[in-house]
Amino acid sequence: MPQLSTDTSADVLMLERAVAGRYALERELGRGGMGIVLLARDLSLDRPVALKMLPALLASQPLLRERFLREARTAAGLSHPHIVPIHAVEEHEGIAFIAMAFVDGETLADRVRRTGPLPPHEVARILREVAWALAYAHGRGIVHRDVKPDNILIERGSGRAMVTDFGIAQARSAPGVTDRLTLEGQLLGTAAFMSPEQGAGEHVDGRSDLYSLGGVGFYALTGRAPFEATTLEAVLVARFTRAAPAVASIRPDVPSALAATIDRCLAREPHDRFASGEAVAEALSEGTGIAGTQEVAPPVRSFLRAAEQTLWLASLIVVFTIVYGLPTGRRFAPMLVGIALGIVIVSIDLFRRARELLGEGFDASDVRRGFRTEKQAHAEEMRRLFDARRTDARRRLGRRAWIVFAVGVVARVALQFAFRYTDRAYWRWLILLMIAADISNTVSLVTGLNASPRAERRMFRLAAWMWQSRFARGFFWLAGIGRARPEKRGRTLNADTPSYRLIDLAPAAVKATYPDLPELLRRLDTTQAGLRLREAEVARALTESGGGRLSAHRLDEQSSATTSGGFRTPNELVLEERRVSLLDEMRDALQSTRARRATIAAALENVRIQLLRIGAGVGGADDMREEVAALRALVDQDHGSSGATSLHASQPVPARRT
User: Which residues are known catalytic residues?
Assistant: First the structure.
């Protein structure tokens, strides 16, 4: 990343003086049309932060500075696991800056430039997480207006997608703010991902962001934007004069459901797109199958690896017993006994692991699901890793290796027989030749097994086939003899699992610290189900009343146009005002319901991330204090403080460890 330099230090030095004693600037992270982003360290909390500063040239313009600060404060009110949090918004002596969380990772644009187009499964996951974030912001009346690959960060390690840079975000209800702004002759926002209505300076709502989200998905899958041209005007004209190309026309291997979701987001007319970010997330979950993409519990994942290693050892026992046993003239039956005994010995540890899994509430069905999930993830990796050229080269290498191995095995067997019937004087040379044959056979065998793309983790594929058969049920039945089984617990969870099932991810320490957590999750799941039904009913009623696609001011314009040629009685005016008022009321109800759902979903997502983090050994139960307190506050709002108090008032809140 670029270091701080002296040639651009005028603005940076002003910022450094303004934050002296609170932040220590380290290096420049990047620049954009509305600011310079610097990596700094928060001295009081000893944590890295990103400082985004409005350049002095822009900060000297009161309207731009005021807008920058206003919109930053608006974005600071957003708290969602897939939105980069803002810690502070400040203005000092003509310097305006934002202090936000530093995300260790890379932008989606950088990821695509580095690795090329992403696998469909990964794109679907990223789009769904961004759709959740946008739904949350839209529920609070905020439109991002600049959704693009450069404003989506991929966190290193977790892979979580986080939306950043609400630099031109706008509260829809803010008075006197135009929807079309120019800066040095350029439209704010990236034209390649801008919706047609935003490019035309028309009124925009959340569906404008969904158009941009479709463009992001198109870019992630194909490596290019839906519309490309050499000038801004050409891009805008192309967007108005023709529809975006279908994703499948450029990348045919994209699942039809994912392609259809992106194509619908890229519809030119807002009413032809999805109605909300949540609708996009649900379409991605249901249509692409990522709802079934499960996080395999650590004990099950450990068993999967042990099962694969055990199968490797068993295969080696079989191969080497046959290769070295047949030439010695041993009988076949003793060889089979030796093979069986060897397999039993190497399986003892796996048998022990199976009993441990049963003791923790898992069974053969969890192992089968785990292998199925891992197999799907492995298939996506292979499609991404091997193109046609690399596949052909691997296959040629594999054929050569197997030819060498076949010749080597024949030579090794011949040498073994020759050793038995040759004079002792030649044994030294025969032994040297057999050692050389063994080395050659080992190298060619390993090369042949690993050469073909289909051979990548070949033993894993064989293990997956075996453990997804009836063998798994029989093995666990045998392992469970004499052991009392606890209540069955599903431990492979995903973001769409009912919220009360999140408790299955919780270690014993978390359950002991927060005994009311299962009930909190169960109540919030019930609340979410009710909100989902209410949202569907209100949206249907709004659509049937004809107000689903038009805002209030457009309804007024339409009503005025239809009556401009004639006289309107006072009674007609009253009825028209009442109609608009009722439609506005339904729209407000729909907006508040979506906002409530997004708030609860964000709180549950925070809990899920914390449980996964604790389960991975990063942090402890005390780190969940804020998340559990947020759940309790949500339950208080839904069920009244008296009922909620009876549930958790007596529960202690542990102090966060420092």
Answer: 146
Residue 302 half-sphere exposure toward CB, CA atoms < 13 A: 12
Residue 358 shares a structural domain with residue 456: yes
pLDDT at 171: 43
What's the length of the chain? 658
Domain count, the chain: 4
Q: Given phi > 0 = left and psi -120 to 50 = alpha, else beta, which region is 50?
A: beta
Same domain, 341 and 472: yes
**DSSP per-residue string spanning 540-595:** HHHHHTT-SS--HHHHHHHHHHHHTTS---HHHHHHHHHHHHHHHHHHHHHHHHHH
CA 121 to mean position of chain CA atoms = 10
SS3 318: helix
The pLDDT tens digits for 312-330 are 888 888 877 777 666 555 5
Query: How far is it, in rounded angstroms, from Cα 447 to Cα 517?
Result: 52
**Whole-number Å distance between alpha carbons of 607 and 500:** 11
Spell out the residues 6+ positions from residue 30 whose beta carbon is closer than 8 angstroms to its own: 1, 2, 36, 37
Entry pTM: 0.53
User: In what order do the strands lie in the sheet containing 35-42?
Assistant: 23-32, 35-42, 47-54, 95-101, 86-92
User: Are residue 111 and residue 92 in the same domain, yes or no?
Assistant: no
Angle at 508 between CA 502 and CA 512, to 5 degrees: 95
